[in-house]
Amino acid sequence: MRAVRRPGAYVCGIDAAMDVIGGKWKVLILWALDEKPCRFGELRRSVPGVTEKVLSSHLKELEEDGIVHREEYAEVPPRVEYSLTPRGVALNEALDPLGAWGREHVQPGTPTHSPEGVAVAGSDPL
Amino acid sequence: MRAVRRPGAYVCGIDAAMDVIGGKWKVLILWALDEKPCRFGELRRSVPGVTEKVLSSHLKELEEDGIVHREEYAEVPPRVEYSLTPRGVALNEALDPLGAWGREHVQPGTPTHSPEGVAVAGSDPL
DNA sequence: CGGGATCCGTATGGATACTG
DNA sequence: CAGTATCCATACGGATCCCG
């Protein structure tokens, strides 16, 4: 994963934000968590195609970035719950117009929200 | 670069949008073009650190995605001008809240817009 | 000037097996 | 269940040379 943050500084806020959500599955993770807090296994099912390692890495980074909160319960069947922090909620809101743009301009018919993992069929309209 | 579009389809609009702006320098390019149409050389100067090849690739992809328009003038000193399409303008607008989020949450003090010498004091090309 | 072609290093992500 | 460890593939980005 991103070994370390961009050394110097960001050129702009978008640049900075992109560094946070740059992972391949991050926005999908955020999206799933936007619905409800999730356990690791749930998340894995909600984000089809992601592997444990990558999911784990992404979650760790999102946690470091203050986007998700990780609550660990020291129980016998280990239980961990991930949820969005206020900052994460704000990020998701900021992401909304971008999602609208994507739906409008690149993939008409894309669902608005389907954390269960629905994939639409369709081709590039361009 | 992205050899081909994501095989199946996108899970959501954000997912789709991310595929469009996923390149390392794309948002910076968009940002520069948001100010004014630019020639290749200008762009290269506006996006410090990017190499010709990558800039070229990114521009080509952005063009394929209908984000930028490429106007080629068959003159003796070859001249090409890149500009944002309406779709590109819309994308930039959709990116705005994300930029605001980034400025607020990850890099306080990041400038709002400075496409001229995008280099912020102290910024360091990777 | 505006790139295309080539070669190459690295970061990112994937598969699988294993552990607390 | 919730990860970690290891190995591996490749996409991405960079340097350089070259051409219209």
From TrEMBL, chains A, B:
- Is Transcription regulation one of the keywords? yes
Region (Disordered), start-end ranges: 101-126
Keyword DNA-binding carried by entry: yes
User: Can you tell which superkingdom this protein's organism belongs to?
Assistant: Bacteria
All residue ranges annotated as the HTH hxlR-type domain in the record = 12-110
Give the record's keywords alphabetically: DNA-binding, Transcription, Transcription regulation
Show the InterPro entries listed in the entry.
Answer: ArsR-like_HTH (IPR011991), HTH_HxlR (IPR002577), WH-like_DNA-bd_sf (IPR036388), WH_DNA-bd_sf (IPR036390)
CDD domains named among the record's database cross-references = HTH_ARSR (cd00090)
Q: What PANTHER family does the entry give?
A: TRANSCRIPTIONAL REGULATOR, TRANSCRIPTIONAL REGULATOR, MARR FAMILY
Q: What is this protein called?
A: Helix-turn-helix transcriptional regulator
Organism from which the protein derives: Streptomyces cyaneofuscatus
